[in-house]
Every structure is written in C-alpha cells, then in structure tokens.
C-alpha cells in the first residue's frame, strides 16, 4: 500500500499523545496499532480507519468516507476517508471513532 509522507506526518502528530499507540510499517506504508490491534493507516490521498462492523454505517455516512476495498471485496469494519475531509477536528473525530472500537478489542 503506497503511502503519503505528509499524511503520515499528520497522523503521527494527531496520535503522539495517545497511550498504547505504536507505529508499524506494513504493506509498504504505515499503520498505527492500539494495544497491538490495527487502528488506522495512510495511503496516497486518504486515511484508513478500523471502525468495526457496528460503527460502519455511521462511518460511511460521514463526508469523504467509503468502504475499504483492496482486493475487489469490501473489508468489513474498515473505511477509507479522503484526506481533504480529515483535517483538524475531523481527523480527531475519525481517530476517536476508530479508537472506540479498537480499544474494546483484547490486547495482542
């Protein structure tokens, strides 16, 4: 998954104070893990958030969001969000939504 270094820097800054978050190089790009579980990532022009199946409809109703699909099959509980729709407080809101789901998962 190719990544955008500017978006990675934005995500690093947004996550720097959050406990339990670790950056990990994956799929040729970067993902961030919360307690060992995937939380979010970056690609060229967009962010990826793991929101879980129960929050997926809410996530998809937000500006710039669409279902994550890499292999031709949608990945349940994961969404892409256009970088232009994820600035400042909007990025924080996406992180909060994903963290709500991921924090409830058993630590790895």
TrEMBL record:
Source organism, top-level taxon: Bacteria
Residues of the TfoX N-terminal domain: 13-98
InterPro entries given in the database record: TfoX_N
Protein name: TfoX/Sxy family protein
Organism: Roseateles aquae
